[in-house]
Design a protein that fits this description.
With 293 residues, this protein is mainly β. The radius of gyration is 19 Å and the shape is globular. The protein starts with 15 loop residues before the first strand and ends with a strand.
């Protein structure tokens, strides 16, 4: 399957985007439940350009963004996938009569790997891969119930480990993609339980360990033994029933920053302990954490 694009020679590097707002020169950004609310360092240095549907965006709600190896910016929305060359948008949408199109317009989760391949996680259409070198689009078979044989229909996140394997977080657990083969990990493949727990985010280290944020807490996955170890907040840090829904992860040295549905936490990897960080005791849903280079 092939899709034709015009290559751009250059494009300004943007770091983050919230509801049509670009942010640059920001050390750390926390994307919260409210799409226009941001906590950041050096906020007086923001350079903002507001881009809306009238400018070519397929939708004003942007769930994820990525920059490819040639400089194009890509935006995942619920109404299609958008590519921006710095001046105009090109939108990719599902066409039921055309297998060369993305499998579902609800394509909010995107990721670009080291091979300049754009992974597209949809809700309702599984995973797609667009090779930006050859412009070949691949749709991967998906299913709602047959989670062992095919990937889940609802794809939340992607991660590439140090060996080049692609890990896919879905509504029905964790998948690994290597050499065109997809493997599902559940309790039958090791200790612990991730099956049927939504995987929100995945990060890893050079030793091959994966840290997985799910709707049921934090998991450490040892690739060699294929064993899962679960970590949840201590009772005194639980604000409500969504506190252990870990939506986003950021690893910094021996600290794992965790954005949950009830606030920001840090997890000391060596001591295996959590710390709560909040300007108040009220519940704040955190969807993304970013640290600039």
């Amino acid at each position: 399957m092939s899709i034709g694009f015009v290559r751009a020679s250059s494009f300004p590097r943007y770091l983050s985007k919230l509801s049509g707002i670009y942010l640059r020169s920001i050390a750390i950004v926390f994307t919260l439940f409210f799409p226009t609310l941001v906590f950041a360092i050096n906020s007086d240095q923001w350079q903002i350009e507001h881009i809306q549907i009238e400018d070519g965006l397929p939708d004003s709600t942007i769930y994820s963004m990525a920059q490819d190896h040639t400089g194009f910016m890509w935006f995942g929305t619920t109404r299609g996938l958008a590519r921006f060359d710095g001046y105009t948008f090109k939108t990719l949408k599902h066409d039921v009569t055309n297998p060369d199109t993305i499998s579902n317009n609800n394509a909010g989760n995107i990721f670009i790997d080291s091979k300049n391949q754009l992974w597209i996680g949809t809700f309702g259409g599984g995973a797609n891969k667009l090779d930006l070198n050859s412009n070949i689009l691949t749709r991967y078979p998906y299913a709602v119930s047959q989670v062992e044989a095919m990937i889940s229909a609802n794809v939340q996140t992607f991660y590439e480990d140090h060996n080049g394997a692609i890990w896919i977080g879905t509504a029905t657990g964790l998948y690994q993609y290597v050499d065109e083969e997809i493997k599902h990990f559940d309790p039958h493949h090791g200790k612990g339980e991730v099956e049927h727990s939504r995987v929100w985010d995945i990060v890893g280290n050079d030793q091959g360990d994966l840290w997985i944020g799910t709707s049921n807490g934090l998991y450490l996955f040892d690739q060699e033994s294929e064993e899962f170890t679960q970590y949840q907040l201590p009772p005194e840090m639980v604000i409500d029933i969504t506190s252990n829904q870990f939506r986003t992860l950021l690893m910094k040295d021996d600290t794992l920053w965790v954005g949950s549905s009830s606030g920001l936490f840090s997890f000391n990897i060596n001591q295996k302990s959590f710390q709560f960080h909040s300007p108040s005791q009220r519940s704040i849903k955190i969807n993304d954490i970013y640290q600039a280079p």
